[in-house]
Amino acid sequence: MRIAVNDDLVKKLESLSLVELSQDERSRIRKDLEDILAFFSKLDQLDLSEVEPTFHPVGAGKTRKDVPDDPLPVQEALLNARKIKEGYIIGPKTFGD
Amino acid sequence: MNLETVRKLIEGSLTPEDYVNSTFDKIEKFRNLNAFTYLESRDKVILEVKESLKNRGRLAGLLVAVKDNISVKGMPTTCGSRMLKNYISPYDATVIKKLKAEGAVILGKTNMDEFAMGSTTETSFFGPVRNPWDPSRTAGGSSGGSAVAVATDIVKVSLGSDTGGSIRAPASFTGIFGLKPSYGTVSRYGLVAYANSLEQIGPFAQTAEDLALIYGLISGEDPRDSTTVKERPIDGNSIDMRSLRVGLLVDINEASEPPVRSKINDVVNRLSDQGTIVKEVKLGLSDYVVPAYYVIAMSEASSNLARYDGVRYGHSIDGDGNWREVYGKTRGEGFGTEVKRRILLGSFILSAGYYEQYYLKALKVRTMLIRQLNSFLREVDVLISPTMPILPPKLGELIDDPVRMYMIDVNTVIANLTGLPALSVPVGEVGALKVGAQLIGSYLSDLFLISLAGTVHESMHGRE
User: For B388-447, what is each residue's pLDDT tens digit?
Assistant: First the structure.
């Protein structure tokens, strides 16, 4: 099944992915997405109704004991942050314009 | 053993100054290949080599190059992306800790496809890596820089990561050894995540012995990576070619370019001459493995790359606005085109209505492939195919056609989907260009595979 990828769908995916494209980039990527999805639709040719999915090549992950283990000092953990105030990272506004 | 460098350094027949200076001379000589994104200063490296020689680790004083998606404390980890251009790692990956504990000195970080998304190291923000044997061609990817560093003898060994062939492709295109280990035998702690269920860190080397040594040192269970396994790879005993059973992946071989196929046929004939039983096996699923692989990889990527918001680290736009605008613009600016394509597609595949149509189907193809390969590996000891279906392409030849680019991964992705160990061994040349054979073995047979690769290389080399 070939899925028609239009500008609205690309814009919806940009919104879901939080990735803003320029109009030029959007046109180029729109065509790529259509070709790639057509390529993926080869999977439709297989009857997979009796097959179980494999999410991971090794069994379920294990957990370690929930004890602190040499955490990074705060100063080092903040070294790559752009805006810092009193040991905290400043992020963009979460409400309002 | 090729790690003679370590012996000479310990004996004193090679001084740290001479060793490091000759290394930097080679870096200068091959600068046009664009293998490195970061280098430590010469003086600092000399000091570190001297310091390392005080403790006689198995890698005392040895310089190692590391792919730029593996964290080395105090060095940049850019992942070949504008997004992480100024990011400095605050800690060492487990594999780096292990190498340093044996005396290795990290020389620098190597160029790669952006976030390991590519097969030719052309999607890097820092420009493409060139093939040392023909600089108009690609060195393969995504770990192109690490492969070139070894192929040009700047270093004897390096580390890469392999999500769908990213170690084996550049190993094949540059004429060296590269191993994608059994899933879970090498810790991914400190590897920047792209597609967790597919990727492993692995070594590049000039010889099978060095490959085995580095793999032995970096593997092992790690409490910091819950997907690492307790089991150790089984020993690689010396190979008796007369009792060996090899399965040639015949449909994959036939779909390869004629000069590549002919080299692999030479290898198979040589094995046959030595008494090895060669059986032809047909994968049958080859039309479906690449779509299945990319559906899974993109789904995992869209989730993993959600962390890049420019707030805690990484590129950020100047200017204010609410979080949606800031994140959208930051990510739009920070990521390159291929990364954006994969994130958008991953979001699409995982969205309501399409999850079953693409993602679940891909996971079911993975189940079929695991059954298929395991059934082959009950009949034979190892599977052989070309590592890459083509000779190294010209730079720019595939980069604007994503589907054609994805298709060149057809031989390698099967090992990532199944978690099986696989390596590329250099088996010859076509003109100046290198050809590698891929060996795939049973789970945890890594050391056996490496040992067999050494034998195959020797027998082909003798013929040249």
Answer: 999 999 999 999 999 999 999 999 999 999 999 999 999 999 999 999 999 999 999 999
Domain boundaries, chain B: 4-218
Could you tell me the residue ranges of all domains in chain A? 7-45
CA distance B200 to B160: 9
Whether B109 is catalytic? no
Q: Measured between CB atoms, which of A9, A44, A61 is closest to B226?
A: A61
Cα of first residue to Cα of last residue in chain B, in angstroms, is 21
The CATH architecture assigned to A7-45 reads: Orthogonal Bundle (1.10)
Do B124 and B114 meet the contact criterion of CB atoms below 8 Å apart? yes
CB contact A2 to B (< 8 Å): no
pLDDT in tens, B33-52: 999 999 999 999 999 999 99
Determine whether the interchain pair B347/A16 forms a contact, defined as Cβ–Cβ distance below 8 Å: yes
Catalytic residue among B166, B172, B182, B302: B166
CATH superfamily of B4-218: Amidase signature (AS) domain (3.90.1300.10)
Quote the ipTM score: 0.95
Residues of A in contact with B323 (CB under 8 A): 91-94
Contact check, Cβ <8 Å, B362/A48: no
- Please give the full DSSP string across B272-333, using - where no structure is assigned: HHTT-EEEEE----HHHHHHHHHHHHHHHHHHHGGG--SSSSS---SS--BHHHHHHHHHHH
Question: Is A52 in contact with B90 (Cβ distance < 8 A)?
Answer: no
Residue pair B199/B293 in contact (Cβ under 8 Å)? The answer is no
Instruction: Compute φ and ψ for B135, nearest 5 degrees.
Output: -65, -10
Smallest CA–CA distance, residue B336 to chain A, in Å, is: 10
φ/ψ (deg, to 5) at B108? 170, -175
* CB nearest to A43's CB, from B335, B358, B406: B358
Minimal CA–CA distance to B48: which of B20, B90, B12?
Answer: B20
